[in-house]
Amino acid sequence: MKQTTFLLVFGVVLSFCQAQSETGGEETGGEEEHVELFTTPATKMGAATSDFGYNLFRALASRESATNIFLAPITVSAVLTQLSMGGSEQAERQLYRALRYHTLQDPQLHTTLKDLLASVKAPGKGLSTAARIYLARRLRLKQDFFSLVEQQYGVRPKALLGGNRDMKEINDWVSQETGGKVQRFLAKALPRNSAVNTVSAAYFKGKWVTRFSQSGVMENFQVDGGSPVRISMMQQDNYPVKMGADSDLSCTIAQIQMQDDISMFIFLPDDVTSNMTLLEESLTAEFVQDLSMTLLPAQVSLTLPTLKLSYSTDLLPLLNDLGLAEWLETPDLEKISGQAATLSSVNHKVVMETAPEGNQYPSATSTTSHLSYRVDRPFLYLIRDEASGALLFIGRVVNPKDLSI
Ligand SMILES: *[C@@H]1O[C@H](CO)[C@@H](O)[C@H](O)[C@H]1NC(C)=O
Protein backbone atom coordinates (compact mmCIF):
# COMPACT_ATOMS: atom_id res chain seq x y z
CA MET A 1 0.00 0.00 0.00
CA LYS A 2 1.07 3.51 0.70
CA GLN A 3 4.78 3.84 1.27
CA THR A 4 5.35 6.01 4.28
CA THR A 5 8.53 7.69 5.28
CA PHE A 6 9.00 7.35 8.94
CA LEU A 7 10.22 10.43 10.65
CA LEU A 8 11.30 10.48 14.22
CA VAL A 9 10.58 13.95 15.43
CA PHE A 10 11.47 12.89 18.93
CA GLY A 11 14.78 11.49 17.71
CA VAL A 12 16.93 13.56 19.98
CA VAL A 13 14.86 12.98 23.08
CA LEU A 14 14.49 9.33 22.22
CA SER A 15 18.17 8.69 21.83
CA PHE A 16 18.68 10.37 25.16
CA CYS A 17 16.12 8.04 26.70
CA GLN A 18 17.63 5.11 24.89
CA ALA A 19 20.98 5.76 26.46
CA GLN A 20 19.28 5.53 29.83
CA SER A 21 17.28 2.48 28.96
CA GLU A 22 18.58 -0.93 29.90
CA THR A 23 16.89 -2.52 26.92
CA GLY A 24 18.41 -0.06 24.46
CA GLY A 25 20.97 -2.56 23.20
CA GLU A 26 18.39 -4.93 21.80
CA GLU A 27 17.80 -2.79 18.75
CA THR A 28 20.56 -4.45 16.75
CA GLY A 29 19.59 -7.67 15.05
CA GLY A 30 16.23 -6.21 14.10
CA GLU A 31 16.92 -6.63 10.40
CA GLU A 32 17.46 -10.32 10.81
CA GLU A 33 14.12 -10.66 12.54
CA HIS A 34 12.49 -8.81 9.64
CA VAL A 35 13.86 -11.25 7.09
CA GLU A 36 12.72 -14.11 9.29
CA LEU A 37 9.20 -12.76 9.63
CA PHE A 38 7.91 -13.61 6.18
CA THR A 39 9.95 -16.68 5.31
CA THR A 40 8.66 -19.50 7.51
CA PRO A 41 5.24 -21.03 6.75
CA ALA A 42 4.00 -19.79 10.14
CA THR A 43 5.06 -16.19 9.59
CA LYS A 44 3.77 -16.17 6.02
CA MET A 45 0.46 -17.43 7.35
CA GLY A 46 0.67 -14.78 10.09
CA ALA A 47 1.09 -12.10 7.43
CA ALA A 48 -1.76 -13.49 5.31
CA THR A 49 -4.24 -13.58 8.19
CA SER A 50 -3.13 -10.08 9.21
CA ASP A 51 -3.61 -8.67 5.72
CA PHE A 52 -7.06 -10.21 5.56
CA GLY A 53 -7.70 -8.66 8.98
CA TYR A 54 -6.61 -5.19 7.90
CA ASN A 55 -8.81 -5.44 4.81
CA LEU A 56 -11.77 -6.52 6.92
CA PHE A 57 -11.12 -3.72 9.39
CA ARG A 58 -10.91 -1.15 6.60
CA ALA A 59 -14.18 -2.40 5.13
CA LEU A 60 -15.88 -2.11 8.53
CA ALA A 61 -14.23 1.22 9.33
CA SER A 62 -15.42 2.82 6.11
CA ARG A 63 -18.98 1.57 6.58
CA GLU A 64 -19.10 2.54 10.24
CA SER A 65 -17.33 5.86 10.22
CA ALA A 66 -16.65 7.68 13.48
CA THR A 67 -17.72 4.84 15.80
CA ASN A 68 -15.94 2.44 18.10
CA ILE A 69 -15.18 -0.78 16.23
CA PHE A 70 -13.32 -3.98 17.15
CA LEU A 71 -12.44 -7.22 15.44
CA ALA A 72 -10.50 -10.40 16.16
CA PRO A 73 -9.79 -11.10 12.48
CA ILE A 74 -7.84 -14.31 13.00
CA THR A 75 -11.04 -16.03 14.17
CA VAL A 76 -12.79 -14.90 10.99
CA SER A 77 -9.89 -16.31 8.94
CA ALA A 78 -10.32 -19.54 10.89
CA VAL A 79 -14.03 -19.95 10.24
CA LEU A 80 -13.91 -18.90 6.58
CA THR A 81 -11.08 -21.37 6.02
CA GLN A 82 -13.27 -24.11 7.49
CA LEU A 83 -15.97 -23.00 5.07
CA SER A 84 -13.56 -23.13 2.12
CA MET A 85 -13.23 -26.87 2.75
CA GLY A 86 -16.86 -27.21 1.65
CA GLY A 87 -16.45 -25.37 -1.61
CA SER A 88 -15.76 -26.34 -5.19
CA GLU A 89 -12.27 -25.72 -6.51
CA GLN A 90 -13.33 -22.34 -7.80
CA ALA A 91 -15.06 -21.41 -4.55
CA GLU A 92 -11.92 -22.35 -2.65
CA ARG A 93 -9.83 -20.22 -4.96
CA GLN A 94 -12.15 -17.23 -4.48
CA LEU A 95 -12.08 -17.59 -0.70
CA TYR A 96 -8.31 -18.10 -0.61
CA ARG A 97 -7.82 -14.89 -2.50
CA ALA A 98 -9.92 -12.91 -0.04
CA LEU A 99 -8.13 -14.64 2.85
CA ARG A 100 -4.80 -13.66 1.25
CA TYR A 101 -3.68 -17.28 1.00
CA HIS A 102 -3.18 -17.16 -2.77
CA THR A 103 0.47 -16.18 -2.56
CA LEU A 104 1.43 -18.63 0.19
CA GLN A 105 2.09 -21.69 -1.98
CA ASP A 106 1.82 -23.74 1.16
CA PRO A 107 0.86 -27.36 0.46
CA GLN A 108 0.20 -27.79 4.18
CA LEU A 109 -1.98 -24.69 4.44
CA HIS A 110 -4.54 -26.17 6.82
CA THR A 111 -1.90 -27.62 9.11
CA THR A 112 0.01 -24.33 9.13
CA LEU A 113 -3.14 -22.43 10.06
CA LYS A 114 -4.09 -24.98 12.69
CA ASP A 115 -0.64 -24.70 14.28
CA LEU A 116 -0.77 -20.90 14.16
CA LEU A 117 -4.18 -20.88 15.84
CA ALA A 118 -2.89 -23.25 18.52
CA SER A 119 0.18 -21.10 19.16
CA VAL A 120 -1.73 -17.84 19.57
CA LYS A 121 -4.11 -19.59 21.96
CA ALA A 122 -1.31 -20.78 24.24
CA PRO A 123 -2.59 -20.28 27.80
CA GLY A 124 -0.18 -17.47 28.79
CA LYS A 125 -1.26 -15.22 25.93
CA GLY A 126 -4.71 -14.53 27.33
CA LEU A 127 -6.64 -15.21 24.13
CA SER A 128 -9.54 -17.59 23.78
CA THR A 129 -11.42 -18.07 20.54
CA ALA A 130 -14.36 -19.87 19.02
CA ALA A 131 -14.91 -20.57 15.32
CA ARG A 132 -17.54 -22.91 13.96
CA ILE A 133 -19.93 -23.43 11.07
CA TYR A 134 -23.64 -23.97 11.67
CA LEU A 135 -25.72 -25.44 8.87
CA ALA A 136 -29.46 -25.79 8.35
CA ARG A 137 -30.41 -29.46 8.50
CA ARG A 138 -32.89 -29.04 5.64
CA LEU A 139 -29.96 -28.64 3.22
CA ARG A 140 -29.42 -32.41 3.39
CA LEU A 141 -25.87 -32.07 4.53
CA LYS A 142 -23.00 -34.24 3.38
CA GLN A 143 -21.50 -36.02 6.37
CA ASP A 144 -18.00 -36.11 4.89
CA PHE A 145 -17.71 -32.37 5.31
CA PHE A 146 -18.34 -32.64 9.05
CA SER A 147 -15.54 -35.17 9.46
CA LEU A 148 -13.17 -33.28 7.18
CA VAL A 149 -13.39 -30.07 9.21
CA GLU A 150 -13.34 -31.91 12.52
CA GLN A 151 -10.22 -33.85 11.57
CA GLN A 152 -8.41 -30.73 10.43
CA TYR A 153 -9.52 -28.17 13.00
CA GLY A 154 -10.84 -30.22 15.89
CA VAL A 155 -14.25 -28.58 15.76
CA ARG A 156 -17.21 -30.26 14.13
CA PRO A 157 -19.69 -28.17 12.14
CA LYS A 158 -23.15 -28.40 13.61
CA ALA A 159 -26.52 -29.02 12.02
CA LEU A 160 -29.27 -26.66 13.14
CA LEU A 161 -32.82 -27.72 13.81
CA GLY A 162 -34.27 -24.28 13.17
CA GLY A 163 -36.03 -22.28 15.87
CA ASN A 164 -35.12 -20.86 19.23
CA ARG A 165 -33.14 -23.85 20.46
CA ASP A 166 -30.42 -22.98 17.93
CA MET A 167 -29.72 -19.61 19.47
CA LYS A 168 -29.25 -21.13 22.92
CA GLU A 169 -27.08 -23.88 21.48
CA ILE A 170 -24.77 -21.42 19.69
CA ASN A 171 -24.57 -19.03 22.61
CA ASP A 172 -23.81 -21.84 25.06
CA TRP A 173 -21.05 -23.18 22.84
CA VAL A 174 -19.37 -19.78 22.39
CA SER A 175 -19.57 -19.13 26.12
CA GLN A 176 -18.02 -22.50 26.87
CA GLU A 177 -15.16 -21.99 24.40
CA THR A 178 -14.31 -18.60 25.85
CA GLY A 179 -14.44 -19.56 29.50
CA GLY A 180 -17.78 -17.81 29.94
CA LYS A 181 -16.37 -14.49 28.78
CA VAL A 182 -18.28 -14.09 25.53
CA GLN A 183 -21.93 -14.24 26.53
CA ARG A 184 -25.06 -13.71 24.45
CA PHE A 185 -23.16 -14.22 21.21
CA LEU A 186 -26.41 -13.94 19.27
CA ALA A 187 -28.70 -11.25 20.58
CA LYS A 188 -31.54 -12.50 18.41
CA ALA A 189 -32.38 -15.79 16.76
CA LEU A 190 -31.05 -16.64 13.31
CA PRO A 191 -33.56 -15.96 10.54
CA ARG A 192 -35.96 -18.85 9.98
CA ASN A 193 -34.69 -19.63 6.50
CA SER A 194 -30.99 -19.32 7.33
CA ALA A 195 -28.71 -21.79 5.56
CA VAL A 196 -24.97 -21.50 6.21
CA ASN A 197 -23.88 -19.51 9.24
CA THR A 198 -20.41 -18.87 10.55
CA VAL A 199 -19.67 -18.11 14.16
CA SER A 200 -16.44 -16.49 15.31
CA ALA A 201 -15.67 -14.97 18.67
CA ALA A 202 -12.75 -14.05 20.88
CA TYR A 203 -11.98 -12.96 24.39
CA PHE A 204 -8.72 -11.29 25.26
CA LYS A 205 -7.31 -10.24 28.56
CA GLY A 206 -3.70 -9.43 27.93
CA LYS A 207 -1.23 -9.06 30.73
CA TRP A 208 1.35 -6.31 30.55
CA VAL A 209 4.97 -7.08 31.14
CA THR A 210 5.28 -3.88 33.14
CA ARG A 211 2.50 -3.10 35.57
CA PHE A 212 0.74 0.22 36.10
CA SER A 213 0.91 1.49 39.66
CA GLN A 214 -2.06 3.80 39.33
CA SER A 215 -5.41 2.68 38.05
CA GLY A 216 -8.99 3.86 38.21
CA VAL A 217 -7.90 7.46 37.92
CA MET A 218 -10.77 9.42 36.38
CA GLU A 219 -9.51 11.63 33.58
CA ASN A 220 -10.83 13.54 30.60
CA PHE A 221 -10.92 11.87 27.21
CA GLN A 222 -11.38 14.27 24.30
CA VAL A 223 -14.15 13.43 21.87
CA ASP A 224 -14.32 14.62 18.26
CA GLY A 225 -17.03 17.27 18.03
CA GLY A 226 -18.25 16.88 21.60
CA SER A 227 -17.34 17.70 25.15
CA PRO A 228 -14.76 15.52 26.91
CA VAL A 229 -15.93 12.42 28.76
CA ARG A 230 -14.63 11.22 32.13
CA ILE A 231 -13.15 7.75 31.96
CA SER A 232 -11.00 5.46 34.06
CA MET A 233 -7.30 5.54 33.19
CA MET A 234 -4.14 3.66 34.16
CA GLN A 235 -0.95 5.61 34.72
CA GLN A 236 2.73 4.82 35.17
CA ASP A 237 5.95 6.84 35.06
CA ASN A 238 9.18 5.48 33.53
CA TYR A 239 7.23 2.96 31.53
CA PRO A 240 9.33 1.16 28.90
CA VAL A 241 7.76 1.35 25.44
CA LYS A 242 8.96 1.54 21.87
CA MET A 243 7.92 4.72 20.24
CA GLY A 244 7.99 6.86 17.14
CA ALA A 245 6.12 9.51 15.24
CA ASP A 246 4.84 9.33 11.70
CA SER A 247 4.60 12.77 10.16
CA ASP A 248 2.75 11.58 7.05
CA LEU A 249 0.05 9.95 9.12
CA SER A 250 0.18 12.68 11.78
CA CYS A 251 0.27 10.29 14.66
CA THR A 252 2.53 8.98 17.39
CA ILE A 253 2.91 5.27 17.77
CA ALA A 254 3.72 3.32 20.91
CA GLN A 255 4.36 -0.39 21.14
CA ILE A 256 3.70 -1.80 24.60
CA GLN A 257 4.91 -5.25 25.50
CA MET A 258 2.53 -7.82 26.87
CA GLN A 259 3.36 -11.19 28.37
CA ASP A 260 4.13 -14.23 26.24
CA ASP A 261 5.36 -12.36 23.19
CA ILE A 262 2.27 -10.29 22.50
CA SER A 263 2.32 -6.57 22.00
CA MET A 264 -0.11 -3.73 21.68
CA PHE A 265 0.46 -0.97 19.13
CA ILE A 266 -1.30 2.31 19.73
CA PHE A 267 -1.68 4.84 16.94
CA LEU A 268 -2.52 8.17 18.48
CA PRO A 269 -3.43 10.94 16.02
CA ASP A 270 -1.90 14.31 16.81
CA ASP A 271 -5.32 15.95 16.66
CA VAL A 272 -8.62 15.07 18.26
CA THR A 273 -10.31 13.38 15.33
CA SER A 274 -12.43 10.34 14.73
CA ASN A 275 -11.46 10.33 11.05
CA MET A 276 -8.51 7.95 10.85
CA THR A 277 -8.99 7.07 7.19
CA LEU A 278 -5.43 7.85 6.20
CA LEU A 279 -4.06 5.66 8.96
CA GLU A 280 -6.53 2.86 8.28
CA GLU A 281 -5.52 2.92 4.62
CA SER A 282 -1.85 2.31 5.45
CA LEU A 283 -2.25 -0.79 7.55
CA THR A 284 -0.73 -3.97 6.14
CA ALA A 285 1.32 -6.74 7.72
CA GLU A 286 4.42 -5.36 6.04
CA PHE A 287 3.74 -1.77 7.12
CA VAL A 288 3.33 -2.79 10.76
CA GLN A 289 6.43 -4.99 10.62
CA ASP A 290 8.54 -2.22 9.08
CA LEU A 291 7.13 0.18 11.61
CA SER A 292 8.04 -2.06 14.54
CA MET A 293 11.64 -2.03 13.31
CA THR A 294 11.68 1.76 13.31
CA LEU A 295 10.31 2.35 16.79
CA LEU A 296 12.86 3.18 19.44
CA PRO A 297 12.91 2.21 23.10
CA ALA A 298 11.89 4.99 25.44
CA GLN A 299 10.81 5.46 29.02
CA VAL A 300 7.60 7.44 29.10
CA SER A 301 4.98 8.62 31.47
CA LEU A 302 2.19 6.43 30.11
CA THR A 303 -1.53 7.08 30.50
CA LEU A 304 -3.93 4.56 29.01
CA PRO A 305 -7.70 4.14 29.20
CA THR A 306 -8.80 1.09 31.16
CA LEU A 307 -10.57 -0.73 28.37
CA LYS A 308 -13.46 -3.06 28.91
CA LEU A 309 -15.24 -3.64 25.67
CA SER A 310 -17.64 -5.84 23.91
CA TYR A 311 -18.54 -5.55 20.25
CA SER A 312 -20.59 -7.68 17.93
CA THR A 313 -21.60 -7.42 14.32
CA ASP A 314 -22.60 -9.47 11.29
CA LEU A 315 -19.69 -9.26 8.87
CA LEU A 316 -21.63 -10.69 5.92
CA PRO A 317 -22.09 -7.37 4.04
CA LEU A 318 -18.36 -6.65 4.37
CA LEU A 319 -17.45 -9.74 2.35
CA ASN A 320 -18.73 -7.86 -0.72
CA ASP A 321 -15.98 -5.32 -0.13
CA LEU A 322 -13.32 -8.04 0.04
CA GLY A 323 -13.79 -9.25 -3.51
CA LEU A 324 -16.34 -11.91 -2.59
CA ALA A 325 -19.45 -10.36 -4.15
CA GLU A 326 -19.49 -12.86 -6.98
CA TRP A 327 -18.81 -15.80 -4.69
CA LEU A 328 -21.68 -14.76 -2.39
CA GLU A 329 -24.09 -15.01 -5.35
CA THR A 330 -23.16 -18.65 -5.97
CA PRO A 331 -20.99 -19.92 -3.14
CA ASP A 332 -20.65 -23.37 -4.75
CA LEU A 333 -20.53 -25.20 -1.43
CA GLU A 334 -20.84 -28.54 -3.19
CA LYS A 335 -19.07 -30.53 -0.49
CA ILE A 336 -21.57 -29.30 2.11
CA SER A 337 -24.80 -29.93 0.23
CA GLY A 338 -26.10 -30.93 -3.19
CA GLN A 339 -28.54 -28.04 -2.89
CA ALA A 340 -27.68 -24.41 -3.39
CA ALA A 341 -26.44 -23.38 0.04
CA THR A 342 -25.92 -19.69 0.58
CA LEU A 343 -24.22 -17.84 3.37
CA SER A 344 -26.79 -16.32 5.76
CA SER A 345 -24.67 -14.80 8.51
CA VAL A 346 -21.08 -14.19 9.54
CA ASN A 347 -21.65 -13.22 13.14
CA HIS A 348 -18.64 -12.07 15.10
CA LYS A 349 -18.21 -10.96 18.68
CA VAL A 350 -15.20 -9.80 20.67
CA VAL A 351 -14.72 -9.03 24.33
CA MET A 352 -11.53 -7.47 25.61
CA GLU A 353 -10.27 -6.11 28.90
CA THR A 354 -7.14 -4.34 29.99
CA ALA A 355 -6.07 -4.28 33.61
CA PRO A 356 -3.14 -2.56 35.34
CA GLU A 357 -1.46 -5.81 36.38
CA GLY A 358 1.92 -6.88 35.05
CA ASN A 359 4.68 -9.13 36.31
CA GLN A 360 7.35 -6.44 36.54
CA TYR A 361 7.70 -3.06 38.14
CA PRO A 362 9.12 -0.28 36.01
CA SER A 363 12.80 0.26 36.69
CA ALA A 364 13.33 2.70 39.50
CA THR A 365 15.20 5.70 38.23
CA SER A 366 15.89 8.91 40.04
CA THR A 367 14.72 10.99 37.10
CA THR A 368 11.14 10.98 35.93
CA SER A 369 10.18 10.45 32.31
CA HIS A 370 10.88 13.28 29.92
CA LEU A 371 8.27 12.07 27.50
CA SER A 372 4.66 11.49 28.16
CA TYR A 373 2.31 9.39 26.10
CA ARG A 374 -1.27 10.19 27.02
CA VAL A 375 -3.95 8.25 25.22
CA ASP A 376 -6.69 10.75 25.98
CA ARG A 377 -8.27 11.19 22.54
CA PRO A 378 -9.55 8.90 19.76
CA PHE A 379 -7.01 6.25 18.79
CA LEU A 380 -6.50 3.07 16.90
CA TYR A 381 -4.84 0.02 18.38
CA LEU A 382 -3.83 -3.45 17.43
CA ILE A 383 -2.72 -6.50 19.33
CA ARG A 384 -0.09 -8.61 17.57
CA ASP A 385 1.50 -11.96 18.25
CA GLU A 386 5.18 -11.18 17.88
CA ALA A 387 6.42 -14.70 17.09
CA SER A 388 4.22 -15.10 14.02
CA GLY A 389 3.39 -11.45 13.38
CA ALA A 390 -0.29 -12.43 13.38
CA LEU A 391 -2.84 -9.72 14.05
CA LEU A 392 -5.06 -10.83 16.93
CA PHE A 393 -7.20 -7.78 17.63
CA ILE A 394 -7.73 -4.44 16.00
CA GLY A 395 -9.88 -1.60 17.19
CA ARG A 396 -10.77 2.03 16.87
CA VAL A 397 -11.77 3.86 20.01
CA VAL A 398 -13.55 7.16 19.42
CA ASN A 399 -15.47 7.33 22.69
CA PRO A 400 -14.58 4.90 25.51
CA LYS A 401 -17.72 5.98 27.35
CA ASP A 402 -19.83 4.15 24.77
CA LEU A 403 -18.02 0.88 25.42
CA SER A 404 -19.66 -1.68 27.61
CA ILE A 405 -19.36 -5.33 28.42
C1 LIG B 1 -11.44 11.81 6.40
O1 LIG B 1 -10.15 12.18 5.99
C2 LIG B 1 -9.85 11.95 4.63
C3 LIG B 1 -8.42 12.34 4.35
O2 LIG B 1 -7.62 12.18 5.43
C4 LIG B 1 -10.82 12.74 3.76
O3 LIG B 1 -10.56 12.47 2.40
C5 LIG B 1 -12.23 12.38 4.10
O4 LIG B 1 -13.12 13.20 3.38
C6 LIG B 1 -12.50 12.53 5.58
N1 LIG B 1 -13.81 12.02 5.90
C7 LIG B 1 -14.71 12.69 6.59
C8 LIG B 1 -16.01 12.02 6.84
O5 LIG B 1 -14.51 13.80 7.00
UniProtKB/TrEMBL annotation:
Keyword vocabulary terms for this entry: Signal
Q: What name appears for this protein in its UniProt entry?
A: Pigment epithelium-derived factor
Residues annotated as domain Serpin: 54-400
Q: GO cellular-component terms in the record?
A: extracellular space
State the source organism's domain of life.
Eukaryota
Pfam families given in the database record:
Serpin
Q: Name one GO molecular function term.
A: serine-type endopeptidase inhibitor activity
By its UniProt entry, which Gene3D superfamilies does this protein fall under? Alpha-1-antitrypsin, domain 1 (2.30.39.10), Antithrombin, subunit I, domain 2 (3.30.497.10)
Q: What's a BP term from Gene Ontology annotated to this protein? A: negative regulation of angiogenesis
